[in-house]
Amino acid sequence: MIDDQSRDIKEITDAYEEIRMTAQQVVVGNLHLIEGIFITMISGGHLLIEGVPGTAKTTACKIVARLIGYDFKRVQGAVDLQPADIIGVRIYDRNRSEFILQRGPIFTNFLMIDEMNRLTPKTQSALLEAMSERQTTIDGTTHPLPDPYFVIATQNPQEAEGTFPLLEAQCDRFMFSTTLDHLDAENELEVLRRERAGELDAWIYRDRLIPILSPERVGAMAAAARRVRVDETVMTYIRDLVLATRKHGDIRLGASSRASIAFLRGSRARAALNGRAYVIPDDVRALAVPVLRHRILLTREAAITGVTPEAVIDEIVESVGVS
Known about the structure:
- The protein is α/β, with parallel strands linked by helices.
- It has 16 helices and 11 strands.
- The chain has a 5-stranded parallel sheet. The chain has a two-stranded antiparallel sheet with strand order 3-4.
- A hairpin with a 2-residue loop joins strand 6 (135-138) and strand 7.
- It is globular and about 70 Å long.
């Protein structure tokens, strides 16, 4: 007889598989992005994506938002975008003789911010409260944001012209980060085949897609993921990985305690995704780069010599054992 937890875990596994297969009808390659979105969503966090333009970041997010039944809004980053353009503003209504709130796109279930590092630091900071507290303040009045609330932001490579480095505190609010690069030869050819057959228009599929999940079901899945068992040995392993980032010679600023929490929540979600009601060290290792890449700052000497955050993280994972 299948117990309630096993049934809940199977529901998560089956839902992800259905979303992955459906999304692949539109999105070529980038399976790790679909997995990253799903893990982040049921972990209750936010996702940061770095990649060059034209790698289907926006298309993938739109399709997944449709499949999970979320209200979706998108903001295009630009240097002249002001905080009020995102969070909203109070305007005077002459007919009603009172101020009314004109809500910005931040009031949604699924917010995508394209090219976030084209926003000025002032506008970036307007998102801090929303991402950490699920609320925003306009003219001294606090307004709760919809529940669930999920942010995906994309950023161009740091050396791209006209970009501002993301604030350290802003980066730390993202539970995970991932990167997207150009497709390999076979997937590039698949794009051409689909374009030739007239099958590359995401809007055609979007109108045909029927939501697989709902905000309520996502909430239930998140609750089920929180019940996945994590042994003390795995907890110690997570702690040792995070502490290692604070002692490594090539790192001038190690990961915060938010990294530890991201490891714990994400490894539970990944275990459920793989049909397990318990976390194994491989779940933690698989999330090391997504959890730590955007949270560590390298020393100037390491950066000059071409050391990358990914290389340092791989070295830490290799050196830290499971006790």
